[in-house]
Design a protein that fits this description.
GO molecular function: single-stranded DNA binding; telomeric DNA binding
Low-confidence stretches: 605-623, 735-740, 804-820
Structural class: alpha+beta
Family: Belongs to the CTC1 family.
Largest sheet: 9 strands, mixed
Number of helices: 20
Keywords: Chromosome, DNA-binding, Nucleus, Telomere
GO cellular component, one term: CST complex
Bound molecules: zinc ion
Distance between the termini: 117 Å
Subcellular location: Chromosome, Telomere; Nucleus
Length: about 1100
């Protein structure tokens, strides 16, 4: 050291200290690298280093760059946690200017911070260490670090170098950072070295000549020199342990070098090798051997690409233009980025690239796979899909969207890909935007639905044709509920897929499709008309990761409105409250399993049919070993299921909680197991014992089982971690005070118990489950019980008026947090017989006492369980729901096909036939007959708010006065119709009277104007004429009388009618006069019909 410091006697203390530090660093880190034979002392080496540093810094030779600190490689790797840059040549102003320039070019990124560090080391390429991997490293005595440089010379190898300007980019992994050398290194020691390829270069042949030689079969080995221009440099490859790369020489001047240059603006997916250049063009490097992390491909780096493929519209999920590098392409960084960026791990063989090789994917498919992998990772990992399995799930989805045949399956020949002309490689065959299926998250779909539900709202379209005649009360009731359905296929022009996990929700008692973004309720049915047991959604679906390509999005709207009349529909201010329910309707058949639940994979194991081959391999499912804990089970067949209602819970639960009851038959005694049998095949012993009838009570969180329990199906209930068989024994339930309430023994389900559907066919599985009645049977069977269960198709849903005050409100107890509460929601569902369309029954359903029932919309096939059959005073049969009632949607075929197939028209009926066969009477039918006479005709302007007669422009009500300014025109006519077999009284209301009277729009309007003067007119038949009580000579009365008796009205007519409530079933006695004699005759009352439609054709 003394020898060294002697040269700097005149320098200050601080400078002396700095010099000592340099000397020590040289001694420790650099001197050991120097070949001892050169006999270079530490002092001399230190002087050489110092002189190079001073030259690099520039300026006065007397000044020492004391602001720079010597850094060893190991120190850099260990202590430098953030990216930084260092340069001996930049002044502060120079650095600032460059940093600002770089930041302006790519807003959003910060420039690399500057550190004044001195880095000196040997450049080596790993040959010494036996790892010649194409990566150069900077080495000192302690450690080495990978480096990337823009230009290199083999003359630099093995020599001690000063690195004047460089970036250091650290990495998450220890000792994995790398250097980006900005300026060429400066040699510290002077050692002459010359490159000698050996041999004489006398015979240099042209590329053309060499190519000729190669095509000739040459026995002897020859060594030749070829000169040409390098036109292609292929990336280095390692095949079977051999590392090599290809280059193509061409005749000088024969081709123009083509390259594309640009700046990396974004790393789209480092693992997948996807980048963005110049803010708009994609760059895919996946077809090249994995880029080493020290590639310098960071945002802000300038690059040059040679021989890359130009792909236009390769995938909707990538930029329009993607440059794709293959084995013939080369990528060169021409300027390192001055910006600081996160360095992402790009494993040398990421799972995506492995898949690319394994499946030989085309570029379009690869880009889709990357998109899919991102979506799965974002939405399902880590809750349902482990990080290391994300790629497997993405691969299955790719298989699902592509037919296996359509994927490139040709065997690759990489030598041809690199060398052959014309060039052929997997990238050359790409598909335009295929696959194009978009994966929406559940949240995305739900948000779309919530926007769509109100965007699609058109108030006039929600109203029937008679809307113009409706009073405010009727109008607002008709607007209070509506439904909007959209098939998933219509949501976007590109095919849409939903991927999520099926789970049971305990607060709503529904099945849900979930991902990490959101959950959507699902109404799951089967398309089998027969309602085969196996087609139902069962317990094994719980936890399955599924893909849905087809389903219906249902949006139910609830509105509170105060429209005075239909004329105000364009003023949304009359809508006082609105909310919606959105959910999916799907068929079990349309669900594709991407990753089965443990129960599902177990269930599928025994079958080896072609269907199971298509399913994912069972070994890929995370099958956990059978839990070796003891448990008890009981096998039972469900016979009936009641609806979910709010019930009195246990003493500790506050107030009410949801619950329901099922009736079931035990198929055998309670069994003990050493390990959980789950849904495995039943054993003989499980079916031995007393076939006892029990009630299963599901309370609180146990209501989640509701959607997967179906009458007729067999289930195994399992209580784990116990050997006590009495746990599953049904007991007589005693209410408070010790009074036994229920006749059957009951079992209260515990939240930790599990239920498994048993899908195997058991000998007596179906017996004991009562068959459902049809609508006609409920209507006509004289022996129908008071509580009936039947099935049919909903043709109409009407929300009944709120009847406030009759029921205590239990809003606070309805599913907490569920903002969309419909208080006291009561409906009238018109259910049509599935086979005989003329037979309809009204079912009054009270939805206020439990979770909302999904899918009660026109066209849905429903099974209605445990409703009360009642007969009105007018002898009409209808049904009323009870707290135990349960309406469930079983089929959606008619909902789906509604647009394609018109609902079957009601049957044609003779009036005599309709009147006589009371028992077989149908409710809705078509009739053809002749209008005999008009019995009465009433025309009235009605106040739309209070229903009083409205004259001119004011309401006629005086006590209290009504200030309404809107009125609706209402009419009613009653005519006698005969068709040769019998007579009938047919009622026409507002929207059909005009058709009955055969008036055109102008005449109808004129009539309305005339009636407005008095507010109302009523004419009726007396004897042979028509008359009026008030003013028989009035022109309107005269006109109507004439009209009603004209042949225009009394004519043959074709109607669709609905049976009207009959006043009485008994015959009437009436006095008749014939001359002087008075007779008393018995008359069968005429058939009373209500016209629903006048067929005009
Ligand atoms: Zn190629
Ligand atoms: Zn009024």
């Amino acid at each position: 050291m003394e020898e060294f410091l002697q040269h700097f006697r005149s320098h200050s203390r601080a400078e002396q200290r700095w010099l000592s530090a340099v000397f020590e660093a040289v001694e420790q880190q650099l001197h050991p690298l120097i070949d001892a034979s050169l006999g270079l002392s530490v002092a001399r080496l230190s002087l050489a280093v110092l002189s190079k540093v001073q030259t690099a810094v520039g300026g006065d030779a007397a000044d020492l760059p004391v602001s720079y600190r010597f850094v060893s490689v190991s120190e850099l790797l260990r202590d430098q946690r953030t990216a930084c840059c260092s340069s001996l040549r930049w002044s502060s102003a120079h650095y600032q200017e460059h940093a600002r320039g770089a930041e302006l070019k790519l807003p959003g990124y910060k420039a690399l911070p500057r550190d004044n560090l001195l880095l000196i080391g040997c450049l080596c390429d790993g040959r010494a260490a036996g790892t010649s991997d194409g990566v150069w490293r900077v080495r000192d005595a302690g450690a080495s670090v990978a480096c990337a440089m823009l230009k290199s010379s083999c003359l630099w190898l093995g020599r001690l170098m000063l690195f004047p300007s460089w970036n250091y980019i650290p990495h998450d992994a220890p000792a994995a950072g790398y250097l980006e050398l900005l300026d060429p290194p400066v040699c510290v020691t002077l050692e002459a070295m010359a490159f000698d390829p050996g041999g004489a270069l006398s015979e240099v042949m042209s590329v053309t000549r060499a190519a000729e030689l190669l095509t000739q079969r040459c026995e002897e080995q020859a060594c030749v020199c070829v000169s040409g221009r390098v036109s292609v440099v292929c990336p280095p490859l390692v095949i079977r342990g051999k590392q090599f790369f290809c280059l193509v020489l061409s005749e000088a001047g024969s081709s123009v070098p083509v390259f594309i240059s640009g700046m990396v603006t974004k790393i789209l997916n480092a693992e997948a090798g996807l980048y963005e250049i110049d803010g708009q063009v994609g760059l895919c490097l996946a077809y090249q051997p994995a880029q080493k992390c020290c590639g310098g491909l960071r945002p802000g780096a300038e690059i040059q690409l040679h021989n890359v493929h130009f792909l236009y519209r390769a995938s909707p999920f990538a930029p329009h233009v993607v440059l794709c590098a293959c084995l013939r392409s080369s990528l060169q960084v021409t300027a390192f980025s001055r910006l600081s960026s996160k360095v992402e791990v790009s494993g040398s063989h990421g799972p995506l690239q492995c898949l690319l090789l394994e499946k030989n994917l085309g570029a379009s498919q690869y880009l889709w796979l990357c998109y899919c992998q991102n979506a799965v990772a974002e939405r399902l990992c880590p809750r349902w899909v482990r990080a290391e399995r994300v790629c497997v799930v993405a691969e299955r989805l790719l298989d699902f969207v592509c037919d296996a045949e359509q994927k490139t399956q040709k065997k690759r020949n990489i030598y041809r890909e690199m060398i052959q002309e014309p060039h052929q490689c997997p990238v050359t065959t790409f598909c335009v935007w295929w696959p194009s299926a978009a994966l929406w998250s559940v949240r995305q779909l739900s948000d779309w639905m919530r926007r769509e539900v109100w965007a699609s709202l058109s108030l006039p379209s929600l109203l029937p044709p008679s809307a113009a005649h409706m009073t405010a009360l009727e109008l607002n009731a008709a607007l209070s509920w509506s439904v909007h359905e959209v098939p998933l296929t219509d949501v976007s022009p590109e095919p849409l897929l939903l991927v999520g996990v099926l789970e049971l929700d305990s607060t709503r008692a529904t099945l849900q499709l979930r991902d990490q973004t959101h959950a959507l309720s699902c109404l799951c049915v089967s398309t089998h008309q027969s309602g085969a047991r196996t087609a139902h959604i069962n317990t094994a679906w719980q936890g399955c990761l599924v893909c849905v390509r087809r389903c219906t999005l249902v949006m139910e709207r609830f509105m509170k409105t105060r429209f005075p009349s239909w004329k105000h529909l364009d003023q949304p201010t009359y809508i006082t409250h609105k909310h919606c329910r959105v959910y999916l309707q799907l068929c079990v058949e349309d669900l594709t399993i991407i990753s089965p639940s443990a129960a599902m994979s177990r269930r599928e194991k025994p079958s080896d049919g072609p269907e199971s081959a298509k399913r994912p391999r069972a070994d890929e499912a995370p099958e956990r070993p059978l839990t070796p804990a003891a448990c008890v089970s009981v096998l039972l067949r469900l016979e009936s299921k009641q609806g979910v209602t709010l019930q009195n819970g246990s003493a500790d639960a506050l107030g009410l909680q949801p619950g329901f009851v099922c009736r079931a038959a035990c198929l055998g005694d309670v069994q003990c197991w050493s390990s959980d049998p789950r849904n495995s095949r039943t054993q003989e012993r499980e079916r031995h014992g007393d076939a006892q009838e029990i009630d299963l009570h599901f309370m609180g969180s146990c209501v989640r089982w509701f959607p997967v329990l179906h009458p007729g199906c067999v289930y195994r209930i399992i209580a784990r971690n116990t050997e006590d068989v009495s746990v599953l024994k049904a007991k007589g339930v005693s209410a408070r005070g010790g009074v036994t309430q229920l006749s059957s023994p009951a079992l209260l389900l515990q939240p930790q118990w599990r239920i498994h559907t048993i899908t195997e066919e058991l000998p007596d599985a179906q017996s004991g489950v009562p068959a459902l009645m049809s609508v006609s049977e409920v209507l006509h069977s004289s022996s129908a019980p008071e509580i009936v269960s039947f099935y049919g198709v909903i043709t109409q849903r009407i929300t009944l008026q709120e009847d406030n005050g009759t029921k205590p409100k239990i809003q606070s107890l309805t599913a907490a947090g569920d903002a969309s509460v419909e208080q006291d929601l009561r409906l009238r569902l018109t259910v049509q017989d599935a086979e005989c369309p003329g037979h309809v029954i009204d079912v009054y359903v009270d939805l206020s006492c439990g979770p909302y029932t999904l899918g009660l919309i026109a066209g849905a096939t429903v099974s209605v369980h445990h409703v009360q059959r009642r007969v009105s005073r007018a002898c009409n049969v209808y049904c009323r729901s009870l707290p135990i009632s349960c309406v469930s949607v079983t089929d959606l075929t008619s909902v789906r096909s509604r647009s394609a197939v018109a609902p079957s028209p009601p049957p044609m009926m003779l009036l005599g036939e309709w009147a006589s066969g009371r028992a077989q009477r149908c409710v809705l039918a078509q009739v053809r007959g002749h209008v005999v006479c008009v019995l009465s005709l009433r025309l009235q302007w009605t106040c739309s708010l209070c229903g009083s007669i409205f004259r001119q422009s004011s309401c006629g009500r005086t006590h209290p006065p009504c200030d309404s300014t809107s009125a609706v025109f209402q009419t009613e006519a009653k005519v006698v119709l005969e068709d040769g077999s019998a007579d009938a009284h047919v009622w026409f209301s507002s929207d059909t009277v005009c058709d009955l009277l055969k008036l055109n729009a102008g005449q109808w309007e004129g009539l309305q104007r005339h009636v407005k003067v008095k507010g109302h007119v009523k004419v009726y038949t007396r004897g042979r004429n028509m008359t009026c009580d008030e003013d028989p000579d009035d022109a309107v009365v005269q006109y109507l009388s004439c009209l009603c008796s004209s042949t225009a009205v009394c004519r043959p007519i074709h109607l669709t009618c609905r049976l009207r409530a009959q006043r009485t079933g008994k015959s009437q006695l009436r006095k008749l006069h014939r001359g002087q004699t008075e007779f008393i005759c018995k008359f069968t009352p005429a058939l009373q019909l209500h016209c629903q439609r006048v067929h005009t054709h």
